[in-house]
Give the backbone structure.
Amino acid sequence: MPQYIFSLIVDDEPGVMQRVVSIFSRRAVNISRISVGPSEISERTARIILSFEADPKKARFMRNLLSRLIAVKKITQLKSDDAVIRELVIIKLKNHHENILEQIKQLTRESNVALVNYVKGYAIEISGPSTEIDHILNHIDQKYVTEIVRSGIIALKK
Amino acid sequence: MLSGSEVVLEVLKSRGVKTVFGLPGGAIMPLYDELYDETSIRHILVRHEQAAAHAADGYARVTGGPGVAIATSGPGATNLLTGISTAYADSSPLIAITGQVPVQYIGKDAFQEADLYSLVIPITKHNFLVKDVNDLARIMNMAFDIALSGRPGPVHIDLPKDVQTKKTTRRIVFKQFYTGKTPILSLRKIKQAANIIMNAERPVILAGGGVIISNSSDEIRTLAELLPAPVVTTLMGKGAISEYHPLSLGMIGMHGTKPANYAVMESDCLIAVGCRFDDRATGDEKTFASKAKIIHIDIDPSEIDKNIKSHLSIIGDAKEVLKALIYYMQTSGLKKENTPWMMRVRELIREYPLPEPEETHPIKPPLIIKKMNSILKENDIVATEVGQCEMWAALYYKPRKPRTVLFSGGQGTMGFGLPASIGAKTAKPESTVVDIAGDGSFLMMCHELATSVENNIPVVVAIINNRYLGMVRQWQELFYEKRYSYTFLGEKTDFVKLAEAFGAKGIKVTRCSEIEEAFITAIRSGETTVIDFEVDRECNVFPMVRPGGQIDKMIG
Ligand SMILES: Cc1ncc(C[n+]2csc(CCOP(=O)(O)OP(=O)(O)O)c2C)c(N)n1
């Protein structure tokens, strides 16, 4: 099933996530990634970026249902060919192992993933499109890793 | 400066609210204290909060304006939920105001605290928790704007006790805060639709509840006569056209009329206005109107292609869309013709009339409803409970005007009819209001007789007393080998005595010859009256389509 990404501008108030999420849960649609942050539009609004898998008809239905919410001010659908889509990952290292660093550096050079930070001996931060991040995480040696935290995606239209 | 309670009342008054329905308790006492001195708002004290919601809903349905229900926090508020959900399913502009524990106690499991904010999210158009009295005027005004705009729906306001007593520090302003997300009418689509309709040979108009809500009955009739095309309705659309009009075929669906269901199935162009293609209306969605190009007109984009795929959809207010369609078709020289389709429609009406109830003993329920048609006048109002009683009403009662028949369509809430009747009678005191009830449904809200009697809001309750949860029994008979599992209600309940205990009149009717007289006595008395019609206990509602069946394959 195709993957959909919606960027929503919502009223920044308690319960707004519940309103948005319940639209999906009531129709048994799983939100695969979601992130929220303040929006630049005004102090009173926030931006939610969420992605889910659905057939096109269901996706249209979800969009229409979201548009009915009073707290949702704007909905933009983002497509991978005309949007910058990023996920941030923090990889926590086991026993200060640094062996993995070279490996990740190599993998990032071959992809669109950026090594954004290295906290010496403790953690590596990378950022990039989710699929390419998946690729990197599949290739690094798990024995050097204790924990991996992924941010959900943020995205904007080009 | 005003207190929170004063702000609430000021906004209600500025919005033209004359009547509210409710029942007080600890967390809403400051507002009730303010109501005590308020002379321009009538408060109807109910006996159960669910009835306050249904009554406000009934009030809203007959007026088109908002209906207001008030309850206390915790159990008072949760008692409203069924009523709010009923209003939501039928797009009724209900404003529900509940008390809440003081702001500093919220979330600490204080006495009579319930998380209404979360509980109502899925059953309201929008909801608010007021934490600052300075926000109250804006929130109250928004609540009205939201409830009434676009596709209407209930709005809930949770009002902590301390917010009711605190004084505002800012001057309150009264204005419209929310204008709704108004769709822009697509003229291109109007033209496309008009061309499909004008080229159709067998057009049918399907009028849903949206026609009633948008007050577009006149446009429906004009369009029907212009084409010409027969008009069928959904349950919520009943009243969209006078059922005495020669183009009216009645309701479609599981318990629709044969002419209506056949016309939809034979149609090559179905103009569906303000309806959501509920499964009870469409039966098997794959075969529903399968020969027709479906043009779906609705103000809510999420209804488009939700249940039935349309060939063309027009998003907008039904009245404006219909006006534009009519204008376009008139100016492009559409000629009214006596088409073969009209001959077929007349044939359908002639060949498939409803089963004629005979004057037998015991009474056949449809006879009661048939007789009501000549007793009630065009402005009188019928509300129903749920079950067989409701479907007999839908089949046999022929409304002449919109907003004169009230059903709990989307939820099918037993107990809706009596409180909704009370709400309707409050709004339209000059109309006779009759609740067509099953004995099972009536008992769910029978205590509201007290509300009706004590507040002098006389309504007539016509109980189709079959001593069964009849509709469930009918399904057990047809689909569960007559295994009547817990549907017999016993026969000890004496509805005449029950009525009298509440100070209402009770009339028992066992013979066909007494039906008319009972209604006339009840209506003339000007008192709340319960008529207990002892009827054929195992009478079934026919015609009927099996659940999920094709709607022209009807039993009975
Ligand atoms: C609150 C509620 N509970 C249960 C039902 C399920 N139900 C639908 S019809 C029906 C029977 C109604 O019996 P009655 O009111 O006596 O009317 P009748 O069908 O006999 O006319 C029931 C139990 C319902 N619709 N609403």
In short: Residues B 385-389, 412-414, 438-441, 464, 466, 468-472 surround thiamine diphosphate (CB under 6 Å). The first strand of chain B starts at residue 19 and ends at 23.
